[in-house]
User: Which sequence fits this backbone?
DNA sequence: GCACTATACGAACGGTCGTGCTATCTTGTC
DNA sequence: GACAAGATAGCACGACCGTTCGTATAGTGC
């Protein structure tokens, strides 16, 4: 009933090179600005001004503000992948990777990859009370991130690098708590000592870094 | 140089009983709605509609939106005092109070005193990148809250209820991290098990509840 | 009970929001 | 080099924003 046939699929609009470049520039700015102004508070006009193009020119790349927000999340996810997940995955599964995930996360805060700290912590706090497609995508990503922590914790336990007592989910929760706190405190006060406190807490939780 | 004399102080406008009642109702709604819509996203019009009065009638109680935001923070602080700090302070200083502060905080999340979780976590995440008087007041309150945790941790250590090893600031940081995580996770997913995880983490940090 | 004034309202302001429409450039394809 | 289509800009819209103003109503101190 009303099922779209393949023939009715969107006609696969071809993209021009300059258009793709513009779109990339827009989303780069959007991902970074959203951690400062918020994903909702970021207006099309200001984003256009900041990108150096007209409001309608920018808007032509998206069918609605919500599509822009979803594309921004996707771009932020790519940045997070490149800056945190990918380097951490270069480490062996288990305790080493768990430490690497934490260290890379804290490093991306310190390097201020996003001016407003962790993108997903920032927009997650904004959209946790706003049901819809945007919130859905954010929460899915957070679940994947937590899953990554849980998997590393479970591997560490199976390798005997960590005691089995707090189950992997609990361990991931406590690690994530320290990372979230580091984001919140460092974004609010800007003092690197507040990142170091998270590292101290992690050492109490995981023991010293392996190797 | 341009120093205000006492005579120039604001003429102490007298308040009527019904006006005070209206103002209280406005701020009650504002404090709760701000955890959902955000302190900036909450518009005068919607707040007025939600309170059952006209936009201009509501606005007459404040000289600007920023004054309304500051008054809202003050009201939220009173609520937090009544729902969390005051009951916790009924406990003896030291480990007992540290546990009470944590439990009362988690309880106020579970009872949904604010629909968007912890007021100061929510608006703190919104304003951490917005310098100004609003952010200043929020950060001052957070410092006071952390100070309360630090003081209780220090007292617990001096009473020999906790090892002296992680200094009180570090201990307070880790406790606060679990509480912040509980707020974020519970607000996003609504699962009480996510509050329980914080309690488990606290037990690993502080040992079992005393008495 | 009267005079005073805090309170509340309706209307309107300049501005910005997201969103369309149309025209004009610019790029890639044959 | 012509031509279809993508990219961008200009303009305008209705809605809502914070804010102001004039005015009617009603609580309070004398």
Assistant:
């Amino acid at each position: 009933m009303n099922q779209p046939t393949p023939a009715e699929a969107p006609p696969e609009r071809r993209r021009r090179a300059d258009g793709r470049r513009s779109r990339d520039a827009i989303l780069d700015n959007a991902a970074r600005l959203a951690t400062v102004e918020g994903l909702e508070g970021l207006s099309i006009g200001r984003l256009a001004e900041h990108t150096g193009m007209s409001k309608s020119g920018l808007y032509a790349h998206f069918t609605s503000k919500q599509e822009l927000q979803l594309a921004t999340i996707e771009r932020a996810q790519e940045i997070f992948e490149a800056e945190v997940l990918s380097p951490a995955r270069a480490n062996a599964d288990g305790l080493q990777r768990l430490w690497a995930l934490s260290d890379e996360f804290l490093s991306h805060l310190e390097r201020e990859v996003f001016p407003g700290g962790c993108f997903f912590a920032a927009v997650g706090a904004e959209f946790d009370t706003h049901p819809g497609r945007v919130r859905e995508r954010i929460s899915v990503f957070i679940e994947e991130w937590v899953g990554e922590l849980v998997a590393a914790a479970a591997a560490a336990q199976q390798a005997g690098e960590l005691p089995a007592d707090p189950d992997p989910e609990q361990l991931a929760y406590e690690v994530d708590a320290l990372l979230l706190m580091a984001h919140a405190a460092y974004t609010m006060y800007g003092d690197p000592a507040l990142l170091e406190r998270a590292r101290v807490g992690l050492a109490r939780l995981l023991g010293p870094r392996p190797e």
